[in-house]
Every structure is written in C-alpha cells, then in structure tokens.
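Message: I would love a firmer grasp of how sequence relates to backbone shape in proteins. Thank you; the sequence and its tokens follow:
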Amino acid sequence: MKLLLLALRNLARNHRRTAISLAVVATGTAALVLTAGFVAFSFEGLSEAMIHGGLGHLEIALESATEGRTATLERSVSEGMADWEAVQKQVEALPGVLAAAPTLHVAGMASTGTGKSAAFLGVAGDPIRERRMGFTVRLRQGESMADAPPREGEDQVLVAQGLAQTLGVGPGSRMTLLAVDPEGMLNALDVTVAGLVTTGVQELDTRYLRLHLHSAQRLLGTTSVSNLVVTLDRTDRTGEAQARVRSLLAGHQPPLDVVPWTQRAPFYSQVRALYRGIFWFLGSIVFALVVLATSNTLAMSVMERVREFGTLRALGTSIGQVAGLVGLEALWLGLIGGLLGDLLGAGLIVVLNGLNITMAPPPGAVDPIELRVLFVPQAFVGSVLLMLVVLALAAGGPVLRVARLRIVEALAHN
C-alpha cells in the first residue's frame, strides 16, 4: 500500500511530464470511446432502419421459396402461402410478437395514358398492421393509402420518386399496372397515385411502388401472400422468437421456413465487418501512439532518477520493489488518464449530439444521416482497462532497465 501511494506521489514530482502523459492517455481513451459510440449508433441505426423499413425481425415463408434466396423481392406468388391467415393468428398469439403482417410481391409493367411505361417491383401489405409494427413510409408528396381494403375501381398506390419521374405521374394521376398471375395470364389493374415515397435507395426508387394487399391480390387473382413479416417488441429476442416460431410451425404442410432479418440483409453483416475493421485499425494506432509516448516518458523518468534508485537499493530496497515502483507509476498514469479520457469522451458525446450534425447520404442513398454518438458503458470500462494494459506494456522497458541497475554504477551516475 505504501509503495502504491509512493508511486502516486512520484508522478507529481514532474508536473509537466506527467500532464503530457495524462493528456496522451486521455486523448487516446476519448478517441476509443467516441469511435465505439459512433460504431454502436451506426449498427443500431442501420439495423432498426432495415427492420422497420419493411424487413421485420422474422420472415415466414415456404421453404421452397426461401431455399437459396435471401432477397425478399425474390418471393413469387406461385410459391405463396394459401393458409396465411391461420398461421398469422398462431404467431400473433405468441408473447413478444407485435404483429405478423402479410406481404405480397408483384413484378410487372406500369403505364400511363400518355404512353409512358416502366417495369416496377411492387410490395403490398396491410397498412394497419404495418403501423402497429412501426414500419415507416417516407412520404414525399401526397398522402398515404387508406387503411381499409379498397373497393374495386378505387385501388391506390404509393409510387417511388424515381419511378414517378420516369412515368411522369404525381399524386392524383391514373396509371395501369400489368402483371402475370400464378396461372400465367396477364392481368391489368387501374390505380390512382395516392402519394410519392422514397425507399432511401436511389436504384430501388426507380422501380418501387406500394399497394394495399387487397389491390395486389386483385391484380394477381389470388388470395395467397408471398410471406408473413413478424416484428417483435425487442430486437435482441430475435433468436429466441425464431426458435419458438419454428417449433410452433414444425408440422405445417407444406413446410415453412422462419428466416431472421440478419440472414435477409447480408449488407448489414458486411457493414458490421467493415466498421469492426475500422475500429480495430484505429485502436491499433491509438495503442501504438500511447505506448510510444508513455514509454518515452517513463524511460526519461528512469534515466533522471538512476542515482535515486541506487540510493534506494543501497538502503536495502529490493530490486522487485524498485521495479514495482516504476510499474505502479505507469499503472497510475493509465488509470488516471483513462478516467480523464472517459470524462472527456462523455463531454464530447454530449456536445456532438447537441450540435445535431448531419452527414451527406452514403453512396446510393437518398437521405442525409444524422451524426449521433451513443454512450456505450462497455467502451468506457474497456478503454480504461485497455490503457492499464497499454501502460503496463509501455513500462516493460523502463522496468527491465531498473532491474539491471547495479548499486555502484547507479550511485556514480550523473
């Protein structure tokens, strides 16, 4: 205990050197805390955007439709679920399930009275359930579709901005949708554009539109749906809910598959891998800088106190105690600097979040991204522990130098 306190007092002997070392450690700690907070925000924001943008937490579809195909828009109505309402009722009775919304995917051609036409990818659903699930529709003009099933001749669609520009349509415009039904027949449906939306992805905006489920079923002449999208009350329960739903539907014929959102969104895993690489790269740079800076400081401190160490050894202090004193000084630097870095990082997080900074849209996206940094408790604790390890490594060289000192040479050192 006395050695621990003595090491702390020794740091105060050279205020300038100690302050520089603490500043280096604190800056490195704050950088790690901020990076971890930004990465956590990016992961959370991306996952929630995908889940509430239409993926949901789980997808229930025929095994024949999901085998080898993770993209949702690849689900065809020919491999649809005929008894989806019974499955929906069973799934929604499970604890933690907010709703199981039916989805029907439609691909075809859209045309207008002016002779313009373009291929489209349509997604049809139940607006009431989607609202309960927290699904967001990025409306840019006009209004959303009515919740109630439309009567024949009153079908409405939401058209993505890129597709609307190609067709030259806007809110209130009339257009005709052409699609092939499960029997191979070409069907047509006249619809009214209720509003213009964006998916957030420029390329998808050139083909995308949304319909009410009943409108899509009328267009395709079917009562089936492509899949059921399940949303939970908590994202971290996805694995548990997947196992529960699979157990519930184990005896269903034809066999059903339950696919988690992470499997349907490989882009998310790629982004996580990229950000983790960036975080570890930055951490390695911080690690190297802190080790070099503090190691140099500790080495200078040892060189200036050689005669002091020689005197301690002459008075009977063991080599282990003298070397331990230097090591404890390094650990104090790591602990104090790490805690100061946590405080600095917390303050910077508050400031950055208060500035409401927005970044330019990423490649292919439409909307700008808000810059936010989350408080990650594990990062605050882990960064301090990391700095203790870093300073322990930085003290390795000086400690070995002290351990090799000979009393006579140390006392004669100038």
Residues 62 and 256 are 4 Å apart (CA to CA). The chain is about 55% helix and 20% strand. The chain has two domains: 2-50+268-411, 76-225.
